[in-house]
Amino acid sequence: MLITIFSILLTVAAYLLSRKASTKYPSPLTSPVFLSTVIVISILLLLEIPYKQYEPARAFMTYFLGPATVALAVPLYRQRKIIANNFFPALAGLLAGTMSTIISAVVLAKIMHLSNTILVSLTVKSITIPVASEVSSIIGADSLLVAAFVMITGMCGAMLGPWLMDLLNISNPFPRGLAIGTIAHGIGTAEAAREGELQGAVSGAAMGLAAVITSLVIPVVLPFLLKW
Predict the structure, then answer these.
(1) What is the Cα–Cα distance from 116 to 136, expressed in whole angstroms?
(2) CA 208/CA 36 separation, integer angstroms
(3) CA distance 204 to 53
(4) What is the sign, positive or negative, of the torsion defined by CA atoms of 168, 169, 175, 181?
(5) Residue 190 has pLDDT above 90, yes or no
(6) What digits encode the pLDDT tens for the residues 63-102?
(7) What is the pLDDT of residues 15-49, one digit of tens each?
(8) What does each C-alpha distance from 32 to 19, 39, 68, 168, 190 come to in angstroms?
(9) SS (H, E, C) the chain
């Protein structure tokens, strides 16, 4: 019980510290999602606390992901007029982004001569883990690989997405939120919400729609992509 309480407090403290660090020293390496993960893992290793003992704390904190996801409906409702006015351009961008994540995964896997199991698992890397887990059972992907690829994709998107868009002078909050939500699901959406309410609202909507589109498209197009 003490280790569980300690683990929760450690995680919260690491995240708050990471947020301060990212504000003072903006960089992909100070992204709260990445830096807090590094801090927590480092301290657990230093104190020789195995993940099995950290697991109850993770389960407790993960429980609140549900209410947190539902809470995304609030900024989505507030920004509904802007989203409605840009619906069709956003849908086109969302479709292009979703398909590019699937095709790019297949192309990279083919170039690197990866096995079909890894290739199939990579195709769902950009959708939120509950949906990715369900889709993985339909397409024959490895659930552990899917979970790992989803986490890595989300973390990379949260770390590098805002930095890359700054580099390309993409300052409009709407496309910033759309891009991050389409590619980096929930982890990226958390980072987008830090930028502003509109970014968070658009990213949340994109995350949900990307999951729906991918779950419908993957079972249909994957057999053709594997033969390619």
Answers:
(1) 13
(2) 25
(3) 32
(4) positive
(5) no
(6) 777 677 777 778 878 888 988 899 899 999 999 999 998 8
(7) 899 989 988 888 888 888 888 889 999 999 998 88
(8) 5, 10, 17, 22, 10
(9) CHHHHHHHHHHHHHHHHHHHHHHHCCCHHHCHHHHHHHHHHHHHHHCCCCHHHHHHHHHHHHHCHHHHHHHCHHHHHHCHHHHHHCHHHHHHHHHHHHHHHHHHHHHHHHHCCCCHHHHHHHCCCCCCHHHHHHHHHHHCCCHHHHHHHHHHHHHHHHHHHHHHHHHCCCCCHHHHHHHHHHHHHHHHHHHHHHHCHHHHHHHHHHHHHHHHHHHHHHHHHHHHHHHC
Total residues belonging to the chain: 228
d(CA 39, CA 165): 26
Query: Tokens 């903006």 — which residue?
Result: 26
Residues whose CB is less than 8 angstroms from the CB of residue 217 and which lie 6 or more positions away in sequence, other chains included = 98, 99, 102
The tokens of 155 are what? 């973390």
Amino acid at 55: E
What pLDDT does 42 receive?
93
